Amino acid sequence: MSSNNFKQVFSFNVEYSPQYTVKKFISERTKLQVVQIFSKASPMVEGYFAVGTEITNDSGIPHTLEHLVFTGSKKYPYKSILDKGANLSMSSTNAWTATDQTVYTLSTAGWLGFKNVLPFYLDCLFNPTLTKEAFTTEVYHIDPETLQDKGVVYSEMEAIENQSWFINDLAYKRLTHPQGSGYRSETGGLTENLRSLTIEEIREYHAKNYHSGNVCLIITGNVPTDELLEIVSKVDDELPTVDNFKRSFIETDTNKFLQPRFDEPLVEKTVQFPELDVSQGELGFYWITCDYTDSLGDLLLTILLEYLTDGSLSVLTKKFVEIDHPLANDVGYQTEDFIKVVANVYFSGVPTKRLQELKTDVMKTLSEHKVDLVRINQVLENYKLSYLSKLERSGADVLSSSVITNFLYDKDFTGETLVNGYKTLVDFDNAAKLTSEEWTDLLQKWFVKNTPNVILSEPSAELYESSKLEKEERLNERKTNFTEEYKKELAQKLKLADDINNTPVPESLLNQFNINDPSSAIDFIQTTSVPSYESKINGPAANTEYIQKLVDLQSKSKLPFSIHLEQFDSHFVEINLMLSSEVIKDKSLLPLYLLFCDSFTMPMKNSEGEIISYEKTVSALKDDTLSYSIQRNVVSRFYPETIKFKVKCKAENYAKGVNWIKRAIYDAVYDEQRINVLLDNFLSSIIESHRSGYNMLICHIKDLSFTEKSMEKATNILSNEEYLSQLKDDIEDGKFAKNILPQLERFRKYIIDGLREAHVLVLGDIQHIGVDNFYKVWEDNFAVENPLGKFPELPNDTDYFTPLRQNLGKKCFILTTPGSDSSFLAVKANCSIDYYHPDYPILKLLLGYLQATEGPFWTSIRGLGLAYGAWAYNYVDIKDLQFIVYRAADLIKSYEAAEKIMQDLAEGTVEFDDNLLKGAIAIFLKGLAESNSSFLNTGYGKYVRTVGLMKDPEFTQNMIHELVKVEKSDLQRCIKTYMLPLFKQTTSSPFIACHPTKKDEFKDYMEKRGYEVEVRELQEDDDDDESCCSDSDCESENDL
């Protein structure tokens, strides 16, 4: 057949974000759909291959297929073909399964690598091998030694099945969707069903559902359309003709079941989740609302939900959360775009005895509320600006998500809803025309007259105990009934699966994925840096007239502190004022950061000295900004001993943004009632939050690693819950003015006095910000005495280490987490090399090799179903080398497997694989492109590399040349020097978080290895928090 199998369905330019053009094509013979989202705004090319996955049971077949598709195709029957090939092509693969879809992703640095992998990937999608051996390791098996349940999918689901959110979600599905509805099923698979699932059932489902008419390929980035269609057409040529088929959800019984419930009785269900602390539960409301194809109606619903739940001014937050004696510590919403939109409003941290009271009060509030037109128009405008900002930063992600939903639920393949909803902003314009009465009528229609289904979720200590017993009984039954002969059969089955799964991929196949000179295949985006104090300007706009004018203006200005610009085209600006926590001279005040970081939402004094309420303050903030926060970092996780004031706003509001930072510092009024509300909610959130074992592990490590002089310790709730409780007691005892307010004022005074050592990072377009105003607004707002006149020293994390952290080794630490069924491990060792040490590129390549997809950790740990994942990292800034096991089904075997990998490579028993080494270099390059996937990310990363980590904006580019020079002997030496010490008692410290039932097993094992083991148990009355800091709004700006 010819290369033009596909006819164009539509093409439109996104008028409000013109860098994006969306085109849709369809194969008339096979009905395969292709949507291209063309843009040059990122070096990344992304693929989203969507399959409608309707099922009416809890077998988990859609989820198992998500894993098994990656284990080879009939044409290429090698389990590692796809991921090893992707490594070589600067790509990575992934997938997710939701209630109604499985989406396979391909993320690549540049088009060259993407087009290498695409035909192999699609062959695996349409023609997977689906072998029994792959099922054994990827889905489910019984360990022949421990007799425990294993398998990658099984371990994943076991880890979440007893979490409150999972139980609530399953209860909602059961209550809202009747038997026969695809929306009722748990597509991930319940563990009891995974234990009896067969590969034959999975094959049957694939044959029925993975046909070309039920697949849409979405490709984003700088991709030549003709070349893309030519490649996909070759795949399409080999697919069978598809004529008549039933569209999932649209043309099945599921469609007729999903209807709003106008004027029907409220339906509720109380469910229980296992938890020792029974003081707090959760509450969820679910409404079936408008058709997906009603794009305006969908937008109006979202705006109403934002108005009801988002932020301190929202109706339900003001009424139930930010009050004395709150009925919840948080309220939020989410929508599921099915055939009809399902809206969910959820409350967490609800006192268990008041769940019914809150349910009644919420419905009463909704029924009586009249929408404030000024406020909802503000919500509408902020939502629109946030949407436009997301398009600038990650538009391909935003648009691709919309395309997937459109593929599933539009009335036909023409995509009319997508075109009408996304080509222009007309829906926002129409929404802005609504009156208060019309908004109120909508609120009444969808959230009052349309009756919700309600889930009341209660903690249960009895269920916690019974869930433990159930697992123990199953294990004991196997120990009794499984003969030695049967155990041998299990072992032989597992070994056979491992052998077949690890069949080597022919070199000739892997060679097809190689890219000559891979770094040249990436179109990196660049920003222009304009630092202060005569530092060098660099970037594509360095010699432009407007940048030169800015430089001239800087030389004539009296800068209060360093002000650095990262210049790129944008209609928005991000403003960051940062200073070291060292300015807080009295370290006993550091925990007050947890209250100080809410300064933006405190009452404030105006220029006349009047105190403006926090409601009016926040309302004014929302008029002028998109977002505002006080965080602990320079960028992402780097320099956590930094206090950062951050505002994002339209570029034209730059001066207002700077002024708001000034007002948060100088004009915030530490109001007793406001502080009391914040403390109530903070302390309330502690009870539920220690249900995350991994996050608790991180907190425990930081608690042991940092001294009281550090922000890491001061903002860690494992360290300071007692301190915060004392503040609460002081308020109740009438001591706020005497004890708390003076301390907060001292904290503020230290910040003000420390401003001379601040540094500012501005990211945006100086042409929209305005050259003349760029420095002047800082001079006008910050009259700093004796400015430093140079860039300040950034705080060094290692200065705050405890003696334990300075000299890791000999001790192991176990934290029991009753709310988490999984086990987590972090083994840490000291590693003192810096970025310019000759071993740094060698170690970087070695770590990439070890944790590559289908690399040593993958095949020996995840591939055998021992854990969901295992990784190793070197964090130069904190002189840290660590090995991590995440969601372990068998933590000890995972640990031993990693140790054996290191020993075999160090001794030469196992050779380094040439293709994996090439892949590790390619994946390093892909990581560079990914961390610079937007101009904003590029700007943040460039700043921290220039002023902090490497002191060189070109460092990562220079690294590329060093990586290709690395020899295998260098890798072997670095394994011995750096990696083996991770498994020696004298040089490493393991940190473990596990369920209490696993504690003794892990303690005995580590003691046998020579470690002195310390155990900390989180019990029923142990109010600890998963969140190590209060920076819940912190964006992951750049992982560098």
TrEMBL record:
<protein>
    <recommendedName>
        <fullName>Zinc metalloprotease</fullName>
    </recommendedName>
</protein>
<dbReference type="Pfam" id="PF05193">
    <property type="entry name" value="Peptidase_M16_C"/>
</dbReference>
<feature type="domain" description="Peptidase M16 N-terminal">
    <location>
        <begin position="56"/>
        <end position="143"/>
    </location>
</feature>
<feature type="region of interest" description="Disordered">
    <location>
        <begin position="1015"/>
        <end position="1040"/>
    </location>
</feature>
<dbReference type="Pfam" id="PF00675">
    <property type="entry name" value="Peptidase_M16"/>
</dbReference>
<dbReference type="InterPro" id="IPR011765">
    <property type="entry name" value="Pept_M16_N"/>
</dbReference>
<feature type="compositionally biased region" description="Acidic residues">
    <location>
        <begin position="1019"/>
        <end position="1040"/>
    </location>
</feature>
<dbReference type="InterPro" id="IPR007863">
    <property type="entry name" value="Peptidase_M16_C"/>
</dbReference>
<feature type="domain" description="Peptidase M16 C-terminal">
    <location>
        <begin position="196"/>
        <end position="369"/>
    </location>
</feature>
<dbReference type="GO" id="GO:0046872">
    <property type="term" value="F:metal ion binding"/>
</dbReference>
<dbReference type="InterPro" id="IPR011249">
    <property type="entry name" value="Metalloenz_LuxS/M16"/>
</dbReference>
